[in-house]
Structure formats: structure tokens, C-alpha cells
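Checklist before submission:
- one chain only
- standard amino acids only
- sequence pasted in full

Submission:
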Amino acid sequence: MDTVLVIDGSARTYGSDIASFGSHTRRISHLFAETWRSQRPEDLILHREVGAVPPSPVDADWVHAAFTPAEERTFWMQQRLAESDKLVDELIAADVIVVAAPMYNFGLPAQIKAYVDNVVRVGRTFGFDRSRDGEPYWPLLEGQNKKLVTIASRGDFGYDDRLKHMNNVETGIEIPFSYIGITDHYRIAVEYDEFADERLQASIKRAEENTKDLVATLIAA
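Returned file contents:
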């Protein structure tokens, strides 16, 4: 049995197939989950809502606690890391991770960035030892055959070519996930949101088709 973890980061709480001015990323992430469930009903699908309920951002207490050896942490340190521990446990348990992240000002929503900062964590998802020769950092989730699917939405178009240099969404997820050992990446995107015309509808249709194809590919693999 596989576990699929779906992380929704849009501030819009409904999909665009349900509500006017709804979220395209939620629409596609929901389709991904429902398509997977229809083909593999025995698998576990988890949903982590960060758009409406974001994780607490990293602060000085979090950093202090995270870089204190586990056996030396005080009660307040354990409490400060409890939310992060839960998010990391979900990530470690997942075989497929779907991150639905709309583009906000060319980058990630703050809610998704807070999630990333909570799960890229020393001693849990990456190792660090300053006494090691060469590279003191190493990924702890490497070799676990995890798949990362990024679902993005963009107001403009061409962020895979003409505006690639301005797109910090997928790389903002893929780089830190690669750092902790999740290197098998897939992308789906909806464009033309701000144009709200037939080009948007065509882009949504392509994204839906690509989603169904990707689910079939991942399941076959």
C-alpha cells in the first residue's frame, strides 16, 4: 500500500471547479487525489492544509530547539518542535508528495515556504556533522523512492520558457526537497489565470489531462 500526501498552499479555500475565483491548484490537486483513489482505493491519501492553516514560521526558539541534540532538549524545545515533528513524520511516511503551490509575486506562497522550512530539518531530513571530511551535509531521505509532484498556477504565461528566469515556484520546492533526498520530480501547471479567457480554459484542460496521465504513469511504475 502506498501513501500519497497532498499539500494545498493556496489562500483560496475552494477549487476553481467549485467556486468563482477559486484555486486552480486545489482543483488539480483534488483531481490528482481522486484519480489516484479511483485506481488504487487501497492506498492512503493524506491531506495537509497549509493555505488556510499555515505552519508556524521558523523563529529563534525553533532554531535553538532544532539544533539542540534530541537527548538534550528541554520540554519547551520539544513543544516548539511538535508541529514540525508531525509534518516531518507525514513526509517520511509518504511515497508520493503533491505540493499545490500557486505563484505569488513570482515565488512561493508564504504558507508553503513555512511548510518547507519546517520539514527541511537537521537530524530529521538532513544530516550535519562539521567533523566530516568534504561534505558535512547529507540527505536522510535519499534512496526511499519518493516522488514529488508540483502543481503550480500562474497569472501570466510562458514561465517554462520566456519567463523561466522569473519562476521561483517549482525550484523553490524542488531544490530543498532534493537537498533532503527527494530527487524524482514532476510538474503540472495552469497558466493564463489573469487573462480569464479561452486560453485559461485550454490550460486547465491540459493540466487535467496531464494529471490523469501522470497518475497512470506513477501507478504503473
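Reviewer check: Residues 192 and 200 are 5 Å apart (CA to CA).
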